[in-house]
Amino acid sequence: MSKKGNSFRPILEGLEDRTVPYALTGSKWANPNITASFLPDGTSTEGYSSSLYATLASTGTTEAWQREFARALQTWANVSTLNFHFVPDSGAPSGTSGSA
Q1: Highest mean pLDDT (candidates 6-10, 30-34, 82-86, 91-95)
Q2: Does the residue 94 lie in any domain?
Q3: Per-residue pLDDT tens digits for 34-73
Q4: SS3 at position 10
Q5: Which of 23, 63, 66, 93 is 20 to 30 Å apart from 14, CA to CA?
Q6: Taking 50 as the threshold, does the pLDDT of residue 21 lie above it?
Q7: Residue 70: other Cβ atoms inside 10 A
Q8: Is 7 within the bounds of a domain?
């Protein structure tokens, strides 16, 4: 019996674009205070209605999932100069200016 040679030929493939939207220039935001809020269900957001509370209700209590969001923001704050503050959400459509 004759033994066939290895017919495997590796090829190179292009990867997807890995561009990320940030700059490593050392620039800082002029105002490091950022407000955050939780959109009530039914709030208009770019043509859709928010269902945040209904969607996350299956993960635990409202207090539990809101605490996890707060922990995530605090993790970011710990390694940056940003300060996150939670404010009540009025239910106004997303993109509407709030009080600053």
Answers
A1: 82-86
A2: no
A3: 999 999 999 998 888 999 999 999 999 999 999 999 999 9
A4: coil
A5: 23
A6: yes
A7: 13
A8: no
Q: What percent of the chain has pLDDT over 70?
A: 82
Residue 77 CA to residue 29 CA, distance in Å, equals 13
Phi-psi region of 48 (alpha: psi -120 to 50; beta: other; left: phi over 0): beta
- For every residue of 12-79, which 3-state class applies, written as one string? CCCCCCCCCCCCCCCCCCCCCEEEECCCCCCCEECCEECCHHHHHHHHCCHHHHHHHHHHHHHHHHHC
Q: How far apart are CA 7 and CA 9, in angstroms?
A: 6
**pTM of the prediction?**
0.64
Query: Is the pLDDT confidence value at 98 over 70?
Result: no
97 located within any domain: no
Burial 16-40 (b: 16+ CB within 10 A, else e): eeeeeeeeeeeeeeeeeeeeeebbe
Give the count of domains, the chain.
1
Q: Is residue 19 part of a domain?
A: no
